[in-house]
Amino acid sequence: MMAWFSRLCTTVTLGGARAISIFLSVVFYFLWIGALRGEVLIIYPEVTEPFREAFTQMIMGVTKAVGEPIQTQRLPITATREDFRQLLANRKDQAILLLGQRPLSFYEERLMGRSPVFISGIDALPGQIKLPGVSLAIDPALSLRALRDLLPHLEKVVVYYDARDQPWLERIKQLAQAQNCAIESISVKNATDVARALGETFKSINPQTMALWFGRDTIAYNTEVLYPYILEQSWDRRVAVISDTLAHVRRGFLLAYYPDFASVGSQVGYLIHRRDRPVPVGLQWSASGHLSLNVRTAKHLGIEIPAALLQQATPVFPTP
């Protein structure tokens, strides 16, 4: 490619204005072809709102970050594996971004040829998938940092987690160790496990130095039973409780981070843009997210929310 470019430059020098005209025509031709073909192909599923808006924001983030022509292809609900193969038939040199679980479920390495493949728009955790990309799961560092800002005397966090989310727990332990914060991890498989463990936790919890953190799906085992119980017991004891679910904050938990879809797109777009360099293996945590705070809960717990943290929060509950 460089040799071709060098020869063309020599022609420009020798041929004067006519050669310059030819040179510009050739350049614009290839730019036009690149834009038409798309140097990056994004495949995303056909979905309804609000999921469609989430994918739209991710695609916008990718487009801004990647700095190359983008082509998008929506995968119909009725699409088959053969449809997916046909979609890739003439895309052997494009970088391909699979957004969402459905395109990923059709992925076969042998179909991709020389195309570098990236993934995003999924909830899988780092370490669970080998393809490079960015998870919708937010780096626990954000929640732990916010919790420390709100509870400066925090010494211990009791973490309830599903055994399938071991990478999430390991990340929390790594972060907490660096901050001299103890982690008590409790693995649960169902609502009964959660209720039983909570009973033991509440017997000895110190609200001045401890907090509870519920991993994804742990409350979802039985939301109707578990959430009211956790909220009542923690409220009576003035214990700070956080999770990774926005709806929990709306109803009374102290804080949660939820995905910033445009930022997720920008993060994976940056990986794609740098694909000619060594690419990290596997998924990365989402490095940013939206913070939600419940100011009524904070007031009940005697917490003074730092102004900088309050300015970051969107939304704040209860709604003013």
Which characteristics define this entry?
4-stranded parallel sheet, disordered N terminus, single chain, alpha/beta, Rossmann fold, 320 residues
TL;DR of this structure?
The chain is α/β, with parallel strands linked by helices and 320 residues long. The chain contains twelve helices and 13 strands.
What is the fold's blueprint, element by element?
Elements: H1 2-37, E1 40-45, H2 51-66, E2 70-75, H3 81-88, E3 95-99, H4 101-105, E4 117-120, E5 133-138, H5 140-150, E6 156-162, H6 166-178, E7 182-188, H7 191-204, E8 210-214, H8 223-237, E9 240-243, H9 246-251, E10 255-259, H10 261-273, E11 283-286, E12 289-294, H11 295-300, H12 307-312, E13 313-317
Parallel strand pairs: 1-2, 1-3, 3-4, 4-5, 5-11, 6-7, 6-8, 8-9, 12-13
Antiparallel strand pairs: 10-12
Walkthrough of the structure:
This protein is of the alpha/beta class. It has 2 domains: 36-137 and 261-286, Response regulator (Rossmann fold), CATH 3.40.50; 140-258 and 289-317, Rossmann fold (3-Layer(aba) Sandwich). Helix content is 47%, strand content 22%. It is built from 12 helices and 13 strands. It has helices at 2-37, 51-66, 81-88, 101-105, 140-150, 166-178, 191-204, 223-237, 246-251, 261-273, 295-300, 307-312; strands spanning 40-45, 70-75, 95-99, 117-120, 133-138, 156-162, 182-188, 210-214, 240-243, 255-259, 283-286, 289-294, 313-317. The strands form 3 sheets. It has a 6-stranded parallel sheet. A 4-stranded parallel sheet has the order 7-6-8-9, with helices on both faces. A 3-stranded mixed sheet has the order 10-12-13. Strand 8 (210-214), helix 8 and strand 9 form a beta-alpha-beta unit. Helix 2 (51-66) runs parallel beside helix 10 (261-273). The longest helix is centred in the first third of the chain and has 36 residues, at 2-37. The radius of gyration is 25 Å and the shape is elongated. Mean pLDDT is 86; it is low at 1-37.
